[in-house]
Automatic annotation (TrEMBL):
Signal peptide: 1-24
A Pfam cross-reference name: DUF6801
Keyword annotations of the record: Glycosidase, Hydrolase, Signal
Coiled-coil region(s): none
GO MF entry, a single one: endochitinase activity
InterPro entries in the cross-refs: DUF6801
Biased composition (Pro residues): 216-228
EC identifiers of the protein: 3.2.1.14
Organism whose genome encodes this protein: Actinokineospora spheciospongiae
Chain segments carrying region Disordered: 208-256
Superkingdom to which the source organism belongs: Bacteria
Protein name: Chitinase
Amino acid sequence: MSPRKVSRKLVAALAATTTSGLVAAGLVLGTGSSGAVPVSLTLNYTCPFPLIGNQAIKAVISTDLPATVGIGEPTGEIKINAVTTVPETATQGLTLVGATTVEGTALAASTVAAPGITLPVNVPITVAKTNVPASGAFDVNATGSAPSLSFTQPGEAKITVGDLKLTLTPKTATGAETGLGTFDSACTQVPGQNNLLHTFTIANTTPTWTTTIGGTPPPSTTTTPPPITTTTPTTSPSTPPTLPPGEGVDIDYGLSGSSTLPRLGGTVPLSGSVDAKANLGQGTFTAALALNKTKGDFKIVGVLPATAEIDFEMVGQGSGTMSAGAATFQQQLYVKLTSVSIFGLPIYSGDTCRTQKPADIKLASSGTFDPLGGGKLKGTYSLTRADGCGPLNDYIGPFVFSQNNTIDVTLAAK
């Protein structure tokens, strides 16, 4: 599971969850006028995030909007406010990569349909810097504004809300970017919702309702494409739908290190790879461990010098867990001797000599483990005697038996 592939795919995913609803807010027009009416809209989105897959996000958008606007009358600057609840899975993913804050921007797609004109509008939104808790869901605030609009024909106008594009940057406690960097996430609206923000009337005459910003009436325009406000839709889902969990993200590591066998008085160099598929929202992963053939020098009964060429046979896939700064990994495997010599004289060569039972390798991180960068893993294991080692099987087989063997490896993201 290549961390580099991950950060670019992410898709971001983690912090994106945080603002998907915020962007939805960008579709609301608010003037703050005493003649405006309060409007609130709830919408659900599906956002693909790096490390945690698709997430269901609920956004609550609130603003004050006019019910009527006169021909040629400017709507005033568009004010946007929204609160999005970030799910616990996103929190887990963010903390896992060391993020303590998240911030960014977004573009909210909307459409203003009025007599004689239909305007697609992308509204820029600013996602406020927000602290990421150690666990649980949390709320994120977002604000934005768009230019004023005015209309030339009377009738009914409607504003509908579309999809969202998020650009997010999670940061560590020092203010540095995490391994995710800055990423984009394209959020889609969950089908079957009423996405009508507001319906208002364009009257033949200018109504008494007026708006001023900073003491000066905003200029009007018939060509500016910002979104226009809407009234509360008659229906809106209150609970985001349950979505199938993401299949996980692929991260590939190179492996290097060694294993020491005290009873045999030798150390074996290790190299290989770990190709993992991680669901960091759940804090779990599966992995395909591949170890290269290796060679070691040992002492039989503490005296006789022996050299063995070693291969490995995996039993299924490995699995493990990841939490903030820590990781575990477990893999069962057979150890095979492909060549054994004593005093430089070969006494076995083949591919049938292996341990009677698979070794149960259990590793835990030593120091901080970064899922996007890697880290050190350590553990202990035991080996049973070997069988299938040719005519001298009764001598070679017991030679392999050993306990309290140690393994010390480093995983480095490719």
